[in-house]
Amino acid sequence: MWHLGFCTAGLIGLAILPAFYRRAARLTEEALRAVNPSSYAEVRAAQDQARARHAVELRRVERQLDSEREKAAKFLLDASTMKAEIEQLKKKAHKDQVGELETKISEIEVDRQSIDLLSGEVKTLREKKLSEAEKGARRKLERSAGDEGRTGVFGWQNLCRMAACRRHDDPYRHHRP
Length: 177
Description:
Elements: H1 2-35, H2 40-148, H3 156-168
Helix pairs in contact: 2-3
C-alpha cells in the first residue's frame, strides 16, 4: 500500500513542476532585464548615472584632499611660528645669561681693581712704616753708638740685618704683589 501513495505523490509533483519552472524562468528574466538595459537610451542613462556617481565620489575625495592640505598648511605655519618663538626665547635666554655673566665679570673686575688698590696702599703704608722703623732704629743706633763711642762696630750693618729680619717675620709679606 505504501506503493500506491508513493506513485500518487510522484504524479502530483510532476503536475506542479512546470508551474514552478515557469515562475523561476519569469523571475530570472525580470532580473536580467532590470540589470541589462534593453534600449540605447537606457544604456546611455546607465553610463551617465555611472559618470555622475564617479564625479560625486571624485569631488568628495577632492574636498577631503583640500581639507587635509589646509590642515597640513596650518600645522606647518604653527610649527614655523613655534620654531621662531623658540629661537626668540633661546636668544633672549642667551642674552639674559650673557648679561648676567657680563655683570659678574664687571663685578669681579671691580673687586680685582679694589684689591690691587688696597694692596698698593698696604704696600706703601708698610714701606712707610718700615722706613720709619729703620729711621727710628738708625737714630737709636746713632744714639747708642754715640753713647758707647763705637760708631762703626754696631752701626749700619747690624741695623740692616735687623730690618731684614723684620721683613722676613712680616705676616703680610705673601700678600705683596
